[in-house]
Amino acid sequence: MSKNIGPEYVRAIAPYQSGKPIAEVAREFGLDEASIVKLASNENPYGMPDSAKQAMIAAIDDLGRYPDANGFELKAVLSQRYDVPADWITLGNGSNDILEIAAHAFVQHGQAVVYSQYSFAVYALATQGLGARHLVVPAQAYGHDLDAMAAAIGDDTRLLFIANPNNPTGTFLSAAQIEAFLQKVPQHVVVVLDEAYNEFLSADDQYESTAWVRQYPNLVVSRTLSKAYGLAGLRIGFAIAQPVLTDLMNRIRQPFNVNSMAQAAAIAALDDKAFLEKSARNNAAGYQQFTEAFTALGLEYVPSHGNFVLVKVGDDDEAGARVNLALLKQGVIVRPVGSYGLPQWLRISIGLQQENAIFIAALTKALA
Ligand SMILES: *Cc1c(COP(=O)(O)O)cnc(C)c1O
């Protein structure tokens, strides 16, 4: 096949590297699947909530029909929860879909997109396929430098991504910082505030981003049910924005982008406060377990507001890959972040207490 097939900007895309599946690691390293601990993709260690499972069982008989293209019931639940009209809501096949829909709805070939160094890989992926220009703003202490991001905005900038908390670094911007930033951003730039880890924030850090949506007509708030709600495999996320933006996103999305099972499960999970609280409690305890261990091992880590921690496992640029391999051999899957430009670091998702302990023991051995 010709090397020149497809646009140059598509050939330039570095494919997304996901956490290794358990079955693959079992095959590659000759391990028993049941013994493998996966702390690689920021999934909920409790799996999916039972409430969602029951809702899916009830929904299964309708799978011969197309899903509700407008997600009426789910939007009604979200509308009430976030106190916005239903026509301010866009559903996505995961929030990844939301990011891509926003890119297609607001950016044309050659226009510019702004995001931070060390921010979520999908911002590059979602916009590179459009032939957009990328303005990657150097990070500050592994997080977003909002002043520099504001300064990077030009006349042809159309979209700007903020991850709060950020993945893979776990850094957090306060409500005051974000609001001061939103006041500075010109109206021709749509800001996507990606809050995939919002549910893990402590009460002190929580803020009302949906109130900003009422105030700022160029703001899109993106959320997912993949992380705290435990529905990563179903692919369901949503965005909240004023109708002008929502209407454009609705034109771009696939008509049946969110399947029936995902809609039914999301309705149940959104109402499952007990599951969410249990997950947040486990996460806080696991964070302490990790950071105490990292301190004891003399390892630097970035203080995290998500359900994962970025930890530095060596000073040379092979360190991440080397320690990752040593962990895989012991049946522990974590996330190397060399593709993010962080080859000395690993990102570890917070698991159940026992899984965290297995990881810590394996890490201690890997470093010895
Ligand atoms: C995990 C993640 C998402 C999206 O996950 P989906 O499963 O597509 O909803 C979005 N943004 C960030 C920063 C993430 O870490």
Main features:
7-stranded mixed beta sheet; Aspartate Aminotransferase, domain 1; amino-acid biosynthesis; binds pyridoxal-5'-phosphate; globular; PyrdxlP-dep_Trfase_small; HistidinolP_aminotransfase
Overview of this protein structure:
By secondary structure, the chain is of the alpha/beta class. It has 2 domains: 8-47 and 274-367, Aspartate Aminotransferase, domain 1 (Alpha-Beta Complex); 61-270, Type I PLP-dependent aspartate aminotransferase-like (Major domain) (Aspartate Aminotransferase, domain 2, 3-Layer(aba) Sandwich), CATH 3.40.640.10. The chain has 14 helices and 13 strands. Strands 2-8-7-6-5-3-4 form a 7-stranded mixed β-sheet, sandwiched between helices. Strands 9-10-13-12 form a 4-stranded antiparallel β-sheet, with helices on one face. Strands 1-11 form a two-stranded parallel sheet. Strand 12 (335-336) and strand 13 (345-349) form a beta hairpin. Helix 5 (95-106) packs parallel to helix 6 (122-128) and helix 12 runs parallel beside helix 14 (353-367). The model has no long low-confidence stretch (mean pLDDT 96). The protein binds pyridoxal-5'-phosphate (PLP). Pyridoxal-5'-phosphate is lined by residues 42, 94-96, 120, 163, 167, 194, 196, 224, 226-227, 232, 237.
